[in-house]
């Protein structure tokens, strides 16, 4: 590849990353970012198996379950923007490591808690941490990619989410039914506690592995740290080609005329003066997002995330609960047809005798149904990366949102657990695909100095939607389940319409 640089003798990002080749490093980076995304899938949906398993020990009725499923979402609402601001000022890698470490440590601590409110608080902290990892892993991965491969590589992340959705019920199926209890006068540790602890371990392992990877060269260039960025390019080149880093053909990089003040990366968060400077920097970046030319894209991203995420996370977290209720109904009323709303109302009446579900046993079919839901995502996870360049992310996003809205309406008309399972599979496959596509689009919609913050702001709105959705569902599932069904369907249809207004992505070099 010729050194056809600009007159100043420095290579731009696109040229510099292209000459590193595409090989071992990029596959390893996809592996760790994908595993982080898979880990966030586990972290977000783990509550769906804790609900039926821990309801007796934590004395949870439907309203309490609604609060417990909402607590991680509240943590995500607060954490998304904080982590996004730090990632856009201090760096992608260090903040990603911090979020994973916090998620792992807090997850393990929460497994030893036997009080409902204390457990709810620690799950809030888990949500606070895991949202940072979720919001940063896509931009971090995308900022190492040449334009030719970027959109395709980002779309492969959906496969890792799918694996997470499949692995979680398998782990739960293996551990939760175990007849395992360690108990003293003031403490107990049961199989569901062990399940929570095991699910926290991947975050710790991934945080340690991430130390072996460099900071985003695109971010370093944005900060004006061209020498550090050049060293990263040399390192990537050596990993991909096996050649000595000194043989990397690019010898200098273009300086950014409007690069950020590099001092922001050296600021100490515990120093009042430094924290004030950092907050001022964050406020300036936030104002940029809320002004032209970025305002339109910011509003679109936030609105789509709110509607899509509220529908997805609420229903995904409650699917195992609904499967359990269907299972109980069909055992008590063999051969009779029913619906989600009928099952919910009957289960609600039954709670007078057993308000905390202490006699509830999670049937193997509940785990198996959740595995089926994950398996249903595999075709889409393979099709999207292959055809994304030919069809475009917007087309796939629009189709996934509108069809999933129609599927949500269909939940009101199911009359058996089998029909409920089929619709649940289609819903999960389409909405999880939609969420990944939104992340892919956001990477292209905003410049480097605003990219993670924009993703974080949209994530904040999404988690706010999920928080509201979980609280609504917890209150209404036993009373008027048609209301949340209609609300979530309308959200998805509106998001589908809004997605048509998104800009085209995947063709240009990252700004």
From TrEMBL:
Its main location: membrane. Residues 29-507 form the Major facilitator superfamily (MFS) profile domain. Pfam families: Sugar_tr. GO terms for cellular component: membrane. The chain crosses the membrane at residues 27-54, 66-87, 94-114, 120-141, 153-176, 192-212, 298-319, 366-388, 395-415, 421-443, 450-469, 475-498. It is a multi-pass membrane protein. One of its GO terms (molecular function) is transmembrane transporter activity. Keywords: Membrane, Transmembrane, Transmembrane helix, Transport. The keyword Transferase does not apply. It comes from the Eukaryota. It is found in: Membrane. InterPro entries: MFS_dom (IPR020846), MFS_sugar_transport-like (IPR005828), MFS_trans_sf (IPR036259). Belongs to the major facilitator superfamily. This is Major facilitator superfamily (MFS) profile domain-containing protein.
């Amino acid at each position: 590849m010729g050194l056809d640089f600009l007159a100043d003798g420095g290579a731009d990002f696109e040229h510099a990353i292209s000459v590193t080749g595409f090989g071992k490093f990029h596959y390893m980076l996809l592996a760790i970012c994908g595993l982080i995304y898979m880990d966030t899938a586990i972290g977000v949906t783990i509550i769906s198996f804790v609900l039926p398993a821990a309801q007796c020990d934590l004395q949870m009725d439907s309203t309490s379950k609604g609060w417990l499923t909402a607590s991680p979402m509240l943590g995500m609402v607060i954490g998304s923007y904080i982590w996004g601001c730090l990632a856009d000022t201090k760096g992608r890698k260090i903040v990603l490591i911090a979020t994973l470490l916090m998620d792992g440590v807090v997850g393990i601590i929460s497994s030893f808690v036997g009080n409902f409110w204390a457990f709810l608080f620690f799950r809030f902290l888990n949500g606070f941490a895991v949202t940072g990892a979720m919001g940063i892993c896509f931009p971090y991965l995308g900022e190492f990619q040449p334009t030719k491969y970027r959109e395709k590589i980002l779309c492969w992340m959906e496969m890792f989410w799918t694996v997470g959705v499949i692995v979680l019920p398998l782990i739960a199926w293996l551990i939760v039914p175990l007849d395992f209890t360690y108990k003293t006068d003031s403490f107990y540790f049961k199989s569901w506690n062990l399940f929570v602890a095991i699910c926290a371990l991947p975050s710790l392992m991934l945080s340690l592995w991430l130390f072996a990877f460099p900071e985003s060269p695109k971010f370093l260039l944005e900060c004006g740290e061209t020498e550090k960025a050049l060293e990263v390019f040399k390192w990537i080149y050596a990993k991909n080609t096996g050649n000595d880093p000194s043989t990397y053909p690019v010898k200098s990089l273009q300086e950014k005329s409007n690069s950020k003040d590099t001092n922001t990366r050296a600021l100490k968060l515990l120093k009042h003066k430094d924290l004030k400077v950092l907050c001022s920097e964050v406020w300036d970046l936030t104002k940029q997002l809320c002004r032209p030319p970025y305002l339109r894209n910011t509003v679109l991203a936030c609105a789509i995330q709110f509607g899509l995420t509220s529908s997805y996370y609420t229903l995904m977290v409650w699917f195992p609960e609904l499967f359990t209720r269907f299972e109980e109904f069909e055992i008590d009323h063999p051969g009779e047809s029913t619906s989600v709303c009928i099952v919910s109302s009957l289960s609600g009446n039954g709670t007078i005798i057993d308000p905390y579900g202490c006699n509830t046993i999670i049937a193997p079919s509940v785990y198996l149904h959740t595995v089926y839901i994950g398996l249903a995502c595999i075709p889409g996870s393979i099709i999207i990366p292959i055809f994304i360049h030919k069809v475009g992310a917007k087309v796939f996003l629009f189709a996934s949102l509108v069809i999933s809205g129609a599927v949500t309406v269909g939940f009101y008309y199911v009359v058996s657990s089998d029909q409920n399972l089929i619709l649940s599979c289609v819903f999960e496959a389409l909405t999880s695909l939609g969420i990944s596509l939104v992340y892919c689009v956001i990477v292209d919609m905003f410049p480097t100095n605003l990219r993670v913050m924009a993703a974080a702001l949209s994530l904040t709105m999404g988690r706010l939607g999920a928080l509201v959705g979980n609280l609504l569902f917890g209150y209404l599932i036993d009373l008027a389940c048609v209301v949340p069904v209609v609300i979530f369907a309308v959200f998805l249809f509106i998001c589908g319409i809004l997605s048509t207004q998104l800009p085209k992505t995947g063709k240009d070099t990252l700004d």
